[in-house]
Amino acid sequence: MSLIGIRSATITEKGQISIPKQIRDIEGLKTGSKVAILAFDNHIEIKSMETLNKEMATALASEKVLAKDWLSKEEDEAWKTL
Fold first, then answer.
1. In 7-48, which residue ranges form alpha helices assigned H by DSSP?
2. From residue 58, how far is each of 1, 38, 45, 53, 62 by CA, in Å?
3. pLDDT tens for residues 17-46?
């Protein structure tokens, strides 16, 4: 993942920020676009829901496939201690 731009924003009294137009244009965000805000230990990411859904599709599909073989209480209990 490479950095393609840095812009600053000011947080309002209500905790809101405006995403600078140059960044919105790069990411294809338009009025009414939905975004997800991901908080990590050392940074925050803002992703379009469309991008996030595409990234999660593989994980969700894998979970559904794995769930077919993981239906016992014993396996659920075993995972709790890991």
1. 21-27
2. 19, 18, 20, 9, 6
3. 999 999 899 888 999 999 989 899 999 988
- Contact call for residues 8 and 28 (beta carbons, < 8 A): no
Q: Which spans in the chain are helix H?
A: 21-27, 49-67, 73-80
Note if the pTM is more than 0.90.
Answer: no
C-alpha span between 46 and 29 (Å, rounded): 11
Between the two ends of the chain, the Cα-to-Cα distance in Å is 31
Q: Where are the domains of the chain?
A: 21-80
- Residues recorded for the chain: 82
